[in-house]
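hiii, so i know i said id send this last week but things got crazy w the move. better late than never?? heres the sequnce for the chain we talked about at the cafe, plus the structure i predicted for it. fair warning i was half asleep when i ran it
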Amino acid sequence: MKFSLSWLKDHLDTTADIDAVAAAMTMAGLEVEDIHDPAKALTVFSVAKVVEAAPHPNADKLQVLQVDTVDGRKEIVCGAPNARAGMTTIYAPIGAYVPGLGVTLVEKPVRGVVSNGMMCSAAELGLGDDHDGILDISGTLEVGTPAAVVFGAEPVIDFEVTPNRPDWLGVHGIARDLAATGLGVFKDAAIVPVAGAFACPVSIKVDGDACQVFSGRVIRGVKNGPSPEWLQAKLKSIGLKPISALVDITNYLSFDRARPLHVYDLSKLSGSVIVAGLSPDGEQLEALDGKTYPLNGEMCAIMDSSGVIGLGGVMGGESTKVDEATTDVFVESAWFDPIRTAQTGRTLSLFSDAQYRFARGVDPESAVPGLELATKLILDLCGGEPSEVVVAGEAPARRPDVAFDPAYVKKLTGLDAAPDEITRILEALGFGVAANGTVSVPSWRRDVDGKADLVEEIARIYGFDKLPATPLPAVTPRPGGVLTAQQAKARAARRALAALGYSEAVTWSFMRQDWAGLFGGGADALVLANPIASELNCMRPAVLPNLLEAAGRNAARGQYGVQLFEIGPIYFGLEPGDQKPVIAALRAPDKARHWTNAREDNLFALKGDLLSLLETVGVPVASLSLVQGSNAAHWHPGRSARLQLGPKQVIAEFGELHPAVLKAMDLDVTNVGAYVGFEVRVDNLPVGKAKSGKSRGALTLSSLMPLTRDFAFLVADTAAAGDLVRAIKGADKALIGDARVFDVYTGQGVPDGHKSLAVEVVLTPTDKTLTEPEIDALSQKVIAAAQKAGATLRS
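okay and structure toks below
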């Protein structure tokens, strides 16, 4: 992005020179790359007058000129077809470096005649592309007048625009930020609407997926010709070639206000309706650059009744372009989807100034104001009569307001800015600050998404150079480890799963939106605005689909039976609390045919791995209850379960993946076994008790013989054996060392709908041998506890 100092002063009342402007830009976060001062390159060039022009004696296309220069009269050989006696032009002396040619002049004969200098074209001076003849300067200028004075050459700043600041692609936006730094006063005059003299004869239709808002108007009776000198000078200063007044106006506003527009020749439009929507597949467009481009159904096209006449936000078509014969025009000012515009440019390798701006995000509320600015310039420079404005669609909503406490600036950065100064900075940048501290975000700042972004804005304007140098506080070395409880569990989980034969995977935190929908996600709020790839456009609601995709890639290359795990976040919403860490693992089916390579791929093997993992990370496995089934649709309904601590605290889910999910993800579900996996919710893992700091006592083992007693209980056939075992263990935690099921029986003697569970209870006396009455009392406790769990003792 380039702009000249005088152009900046159209929007900023300042006395700063170019160096001060560049310094202020750098401190405000704008990356200045170069300051180009064409006056320095023109120092040795000056005005000269051709006194006589005679044919060259040895060349038909050359002339020998007698020229009055700052160095006196010189004889110069010239090949320009427009050289003639009496003309005023620019002279380069021997020894001058000619920037447009990249050469230094030396005295030498040209076809036998020594040339004592050179007459220059605009291209040779680096002032444009015109090299068809030498400069013909009008007016009464004295011989020897410096060329820099003649052309008003002034410094131009070239800087890099960061992707999040499309408002810096207009000089108006740069002036706003510089005014906030105190460099000058921002000139932000209100845009006065131009009243329409008649109803617009063109109507507009938009497809919201391609173009959310489209405005336009007809202007009749324009006279399109060269633009005035002031406009041409601005465009030339940044390297643009003036074309015609209508085209130059749109180019000017693109760089002045970051507002691209397009002008159609009304007489070349077919019908009275313009549609901005998705292009039909197979269409082609001959664009303004003279090339023909194939279009697809993902591109935004501008269409009339004859077909596609332009690519929205990228480039217009050759069939409706304006020229010197144009008298009636339709002026377009719209807002095109940034992602679609960027994809269109990449697909077609078609990049324009408009595409560059729309792909980064033009201010969506500038469509109608930009149209009014263009209308006024067209009326001033080309004349004509405007119609009323027509608008279709609505601009997308602004970013939500941000609740902001000024104290957050110092907390986050250390800058001690006064609340009044914070308010001044925000308001100078276009933000609204309410009395309760709520900050409203302007339409052109779609990159601001929270209070941290506001702090960044305040800090860069207030000045990072004002950040006090503060030594780091002295800290007392912490004894022991520095890992949080969650980090420690994650490290232990990695080691445990690796020991079980799983390989750790590190996958993207985003995935395909349609696949995310299979795992309970895919909400529009979690779709990325600018994904790194079209198939990675949604934040993941689970880790398992990423592991399934990795297993599928391995299977496609003949690597079956992979065991993968990953520890990472999953996403449910936009708030910080909506990000949850999980431990996920997957066992892919193995196609090994040799019996020695057989591997047990079933839920029981997976359950064993899961319980081993949970025990490693401190979960009391004996206290877990197993509940069949899962509420998540990606699990097989009859071959999945969840492990819980209590009735509500879900620790993990495991099981076979649903065949419909595997089929939707293009995984083979016919010739191989099932894909099984689990996900552990790290946030729900119990937190261990804090260590007391005391050393652990010596292990004491009873020297007395343990006793066993067997019980047979009748329970419902749907009852879980684990619930009965936990109840029995809780009957007397001091004396009951263990309880385990050793037989399950259904049949004769067992009522329908029931089963018999035989349980061995191990009694571990500690200080004395148990007497028979004490054993009987313990047995009654066991029976009572079992009855509370819904069991009855078999007789």
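btw The domain at 40-151 is CATH 2.40.50.140 (OB fold (Dihydrolipoamide Acetyltransferase, E2P)). thought thatd interest u
miss u guys!!
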